[in-house]
Design brief:
alpha/beta, 10 helices, globular
Length: about 210
């Protein structure tokens, strides 16, 4: 029987090497990526069955990469391996189509099981993350209406890069748009969100799980 194909993404080489050692006996590793844009490109090209990715990656976070890949028809199962125990990150990941959410310190015990659950079409979340707030999110009968404004994919991209400290010119180069367009997105977000300063916009990005500190 052929092993399921796997794409790994993390911005630390030592983590990628550790994951290879943990997973290569059960899965076929077909590629690695060290930032979110490389991840998205390889997901399109390689079409893996499973993608194991960190959330906090430069240029494009893992959640946004998953969201864009899903919109483009990439059918991989997304398994997030992260240090973030916050329910905000868990819910954002699930909204983006995650099939599993595993804390890094639990990887050796849980990751293989999480991947197998994802391949069976089951949602896997590290047991220590379960809470009333998360159960409410997962239960459509208890879910509350979201109050936060939904940003467009392009706005989320601009916002993450702004929060990473990049200038409008640098963002324009990464996204292949003009600096003026970057500024337009920035001020449109500030206006829609009722924010007055760039610092407030960065804090919003952190709170919404688009970038971490």
């Amino acid at each position: 029987m052929e092993k399921p194909t796997l794409l790994l993404a993390d911005d630390h080489r030592i983590v990628l090497d550790g994951l290879k050692g943990l997973l290569e006996a059960d899965f076929q590793l077909i590629g690695t990526a060290m930032d979110g844009r490389e991840l998205l490109e390889k997901a399109r090209l390689l079409k893996p069955q499973v993608i194991v990715a960190d959330i906090s990656m430069p240029l494009l976070n893992g959640i946004e990469a998953a969201r864009q890949a899903r919109e483009e028809g990439v059918e991989a199962k997304w398994v997030f391996l992260t240090m973030h125990p916050d329910v905000v990150y868990v819910t954002r990941a699930i909204e983006a189509g995650a099939a599993a959410y595993v804390l890094k310190h639990s990887a050796s015990d849980e990751l293989v099981e999480a991947i197998r659950s994802a391949l069976r079409g089951q949602l896997y979340i590290s047991p220590q993350l379960r809470s009333d707030a998360l159960d409410e999110f997962l239960d459509p009968n208890r879910r509350r209406v979201k109050s936060t404004l939904e940003l467009t994919p392009r706005q989320r991209e601009v916002l993450q890069l702004l929060a990473e400290g990049k200038s409008a010119k640098e963002i324009a180069t990464v996204l292949e748009i003009s600096p003026r367009t970057v500024e337009t997105h920035k001020y449109k977000m500030m206006d829609d969100l009722g924010l007055k300063t760039s610092a407030q916009l960065v804090l919003y990005a952190i709170r919404e799980g688009l970038v971490s500190v």
